[in-house]
Amino acid sequence: MKYLFVILLGFVTTISIAQVMDYSKMDNILHAECDSVVGGNGAWQLFYRGRMMMLIADVGHNRMRIISPIITREELGQTELENALIANFHSVLDAKYALSEGVMWSAFIHPLKELSETQLRDALSQVFLSAETFGTNYRSTELVFPSQPKEEAPVEEKTKKQKL
Predict the structure, then answer these.
(1) DSSP 3-state assignment of 136?
(2) Looking at the domain covering 21-160, what would its CATH class be?
(3) Which of 30, 39, 58, 63 has the highest Cβ tally under 10 A?
(4) Minimum mean pLDDT among 48-57, 110-119, 134-143: which range?
(5) Cβ(153)–Cβ(118) below 8 Å
(6) Segment 18-51, tens digit of pLDDT
(7) Of 95, 94, 121, 116, the residue nearest 33 (C-alpha)
């Protein structure tokens, strides 16, 4: 029993040490996964699959976020806004749609230290997909929790939408 406890403690310690994310690890992952990366030390502008994103992190507050602009509030139709809120519950999963400073964003927000390398790579993909599918099927992955079908945006709303 004593040995089992020691082995378990060692395993838990190894896992928790391995999952401590920092700026250096983030920078390495971003350079490996992205088309281009500018910045560092907690603030990066990057292009992932051709889409502009930003990653902002703060070690002191143990927070990070990846964001990508989608559309201005003025260009956003009521149906698109409602579909985005429905998608936040059913189909954009870890990424979310959010309005801030007159812009609709695709956003992933997470505690920094607890973020794994796999989660960071997945977050980049989810922010990308949720931004790219905004106005159509509003998804961040292939997984969708059961929901009612979304109402399609009227043609005039779809045609006026300009991606930022």
Answers:
(1) coil
(2) alpha beta
(3) 30
(4) 134-143
(5) no
(6) 569 999 999 999 999 999 999 999 999 999 999 9
(7) 121
- Tokens 């703060």 correspond to 58
48-83 pLDDT, tens digit per residue, is: 999 999 999 999 999 999 999 999 999 999 999 999
- CA atoms of 77 and 52, how far apart (whole Å): 23
Q: How far apart are CA 90 and CA 138, in angstroms?
A: 9
Cα–Cα–Cα angle for 30, 142, 50, rounded to 5 degrees:
35
Answer whether 46's CB lies under 8 Å from 82's CB.
Answer: no
How far, in Å, CA of 132 to CA of 88, rounded?
15
Q: Is the pLDDT of residue 160 over 60?
A: no
144-160 burial, b for 16+ CB within 10 Å, e for fewer? eeeeeebeebeeebeee
Side chain identity at residue 158, one-letter code: K
